[in-house]
Amino acid sequence: MSRSFTIAALMLVVLAAGIWCVGCGSGGDDQIVARVGRTDITKSYLMQKLAELPPFAQQQFAGPEGTIAFLHRLVDEEVLYQAALKAGHDQDPEVVRALDAVKRRAVIQAFYAQGVEATTVVSDEDVQIYYDEHSEQFQRRGRVKFRHILVATRAAAEGVRSRVLGGEDFATVAREVSTDTATKSAGGLMGSISEGDGAPDAGMDAAFIERVREWKPGEITDPLRSDRGWHVVYLEEKVDGGTKPLEEVHEQIVKSLLPERTREHYEEVLASLKESYGVRVNEEVFRAKPRSEEELFTLAQETDDPLTRLNYYSELVFNYPDGEHAAEAQFMIGFIHAEELSNYEPARNAFERMKTRYPESALVASADWMLEHMGEENPPFDEADVISQ
What we know:
- By secondary structure, the protein is an alpha+beta fold.
- It folds into three domains: 3-112, no CATH class; 142-240, Chitinase A, domain 3 (Roll), CATH 3.10.50; 293-388, Serine Threonine Protein Phosphatase 5, Tetratricopeptide repeat.
- It is 55% helix and 11% strand.
- The chain has 16 helices and eight strands.
- α13 (326-340) packs antiparallel against α14.
- The protein starts with a helix and ends with a helix.
């Protein structure tokens, strides 16, 4: 690795960290905490760069000792930067290319953020259509929230009910007489229970909860029996099941649609830009057929390098999609990706493409097997088996 490349890599790391000290000095009364040559590092600049670090990095520099350590990091980087400038590495062609690449990516990312993401719109019509077509996603079960008093006999339950109907506080009576130790101290509070669920610790199954739901919020139920005894229930809240209203799930739908709408908008913006810049692409340059199908197939079989074989097979399929060896070559593209390069996503794409393009091939069953057992050791065939077929 050349020295200039090493310096370029170092500068990219520093740039990515966002803590170069060009123009560190801010003037005024800001306290200078370090000086490197003629460059001052001020306290406000130090704290600004510290605040720009991701949270996990800020934790590493927490407290006075951490701040001092970060200051020394800034000083070290400024020293290296000034030394690199003095040595003329800012003019090194590799450094210039590397920084141009960083700038290019940053500018494109800024355009994408402002020109695509910020202008992507999920319309109310889109939201309504999605809501109507996916109503099953927005169903909710009914639920009830209540307090109860558990006693041993129906007569005791009737007495409890009379007391609370007569004006006594339900929670107070529950603390006094309920035999349910789990809820007694909380005034009989059971919390919220959804339709279809029960509260087995309190002796309440799903059928019991359905009986509770027959009453309205604010009402005291008749004595209800369970395998634990007799309950008197005060219903605090009841929410019916059904489809959540659109207003409640509007933002959820927008978030789910946004990635696809952003992709569609990106394609529209890109197409418009290509038209405005008069883009022309000459694909015919790559469709020339300087080598025959048999030559490419033979070359692929004779080389041991997987990338070279991959290129030969790809060139064969590209130039001779209906050729005698096209199906085998397409299969081998997937096989090399999967078994020799461990690139499973392009392998899956290659096998699926093989099945679509060559559905009558004897290798379709092998492609299915590879798709099912991707990544497992010892496939049931090797390249020689495929070629022999």
